[in-house]
TrEMBL record:
Signal peptide: none annotated. It is a lipid-anchor. It is found in: Cell membrane. This is RAS related 2. Its main location: membrane. Keywords: Cell membrane, GTP-binding, Lipoprotein, Membrane, Methylation, Nucleotide-binding, Prenylation. SUPFAM superfamilies: P-loop containing nucleoside triphosphate hydrolases. It comes from the Eukaryota. SMART domains: RAB, RAS, RHO. One of its GO terms (cellular component) is plasma membrane. GO terms for biological process: Ras protein signal transduction. Pfam families: Ras.
């Protein structure tokens, strides 16, 4: 549930009722660091009953937001498993990911401390951010930071060639998956 509400904020609204689905996909155009970006976002909402589809999503993703709720220790404990599965599917030792502790506004219901989130991020070798879709905190920043991580990773993998044409630039997008 944390991922769904977290993402819906990017669509400029917050939902109070939640109906989990197999997946939802969205596209968002934005400018990040003076460069156009098209985010193709697939929100799997981490549904356990759709686990068979998860690896297919992982194969196509260029970057991942690993979202857990700071009010739900169980969602936090699942993150390590998701990260290991992504690396296995990608056959990589590292891949663009950011760890997000959502519902940071609910301090009185917190089951996972900020220090625990930071510690897990260090262990996974990813960036950690806390966010709240409800109070509009760090949601856009998380997606923007993921795009930066994806771009850096892609440049390291394949250094840039001569300046692409405008048409080539417009076609390029980032495929993000939220778990």
């Amino acid at each position: 549930m944390a991922a769904k509400k977290f993402f819906l904020f990017l669509q400029s609204y917050f939902v109070t009722d939640y109906d989990p689905t197999i997946e939802d996909s969205y596209t968002k155009q934005c400018v990040i660091d003076d460069r156009a970006a098209r985010l193709n976002i697939l929100d799997t909402a981490g549904q356990e009953e759709f686990q068979s589809l998860r690896e297919q999503y992982m194969k196509t993703g260029e970057g991942f937001l690993l979202v857990f709720s700071v009010t739900d220790r169980g969602s936090f404990e699942e993150i390590y498993k998701f990260q290991r599965q992504i690396l296995r599917v990608k056959d990589r030792d590292e891949f663009p990911m950011i760890l997000i502790g959502n519902k940071a506004d609910l301090d009185h219901q917190r089951q996972v401390t900020q220090e625990e989130g930071q510690q897990l991020a260090r262990q996974l070798k990813v960036t950690y951010m806390e966010a709240s879709a409800k109070i509009r905190m760090n949601v856009d920043q998380a997606f923007h930071e993921l795009v930066r991580v994806i771009r850096k990773f892609q440049e390291q993998e394949c250094p840039p060639s001569p300046e692409p044409t405008r048409k080539e630039k417009d076609k390029k997008g980032c495929h993000c998956v939220i778990f």
